[in-house]
Amino acid sequence: MASDVLCKRLFIANVCMIGESGGTWTLVDAGLSRTAAEIIRTAEERFGKGCRPQAIILTHGHFDHVGALETLMRYWDVPVYAHERELPYLTGQSDYLPPDSSVGGGLMARMAPLYPYRGIDLGRRVQSLPPDGSLPTLLGWRWVHTPGHTEGHIALFRDEDRVLIAGDAFTTVKQESAWAVVTQRREVHGPPAYFTSDWEEAGRSVKKLYGLKPLAVATGHGIPMHGGELLRQLGRLAVNFDQLAVPDQGRYVGNEAKR
């Protein structure tokens, strides 16, 4: 990714650690349940024994991005930040819409009814990100609102070198396919279809991120990509989002989507 950005794969989802080796750092997302020990081990290898992040920033609150969060919060006792529109799902006020196993094809999609979609309750331990787009612990970075996959989904972008952490606004693997997840074939795809509830917003978000012309990207699922191939594939997705990403039919597809 970059000298100060580490993308760590934890089973089917990724977390990112931003900071120079041995220095201060920030964690982005918190992976699946039972991955806290691996996150801590990776952090201590990079930043030193007993290290802790300045903060944890969430791209969104789906189960595979907050699974280890409560354990990490008890261990580190650091602030957690998310978009204000994501807070209801992180403070026990709302649940996400149920996943749709009929879209996307592949085993990962068919297993969607097993995926947790209830919100979690972090109470006052989670805070809203500043409305000006700044990130409290990351100078030179900004957050970009990228709704569609969830209402309060965000990406993180650094203008200086055009590094992007995209969360699930788009992915670099066909996440609906178990074979693709195992082989990790690197290619740009839309957000995980089974958990995307607003396809119009999702398409606008991909176009917004393509407009930033990122040179390197880490996504919530898949291997980081960079350079001309990233821009070519992301541009193709942005221009042809309805054909490449939006399912032909499904619970949240079209004007009569059932919520």
Could you characterize the architecture of this molecule?
The chain has eight helices and eleven strands. Helix 6 runs antiparallel to helix 7. The longest helix is centred in the C-terminal third of the chain and has 13 residues. The mean pLDDT is 95. The protein has 259 residues and is of the alpha/beta class. It has one domain: Ribonuclease Z/Hydroxyacylglutathione hydrolase-like (Metallo-beta-lactamase, Chain A), CATH 3.60.15. This is MBL fold metallo-hydrolase.
Instruction: Please state how the strands of the largest beta sheet are arranged side by side.
Output: 1-2-3-4-5-6
Strand-residue proportion: 15-25%
The succession of helices and strands, N to C, reads: EEEHEHHEHEEEEHHEEHH
The major beta sheet can be summarized as: 6 strands, mixed
CATH superfamily: Ribonuclease Z/Hydroxyacylglutathione hydrolase-like
Total DSSP E strands: 11
Please report the number of helical segments: 8
Distance between the termini: 37 Å
Decide which structural class fits the backbone. Answer: alpha/beta
- Overall tally of structural domains: 1
pLDDT averaged residue by residue: 95
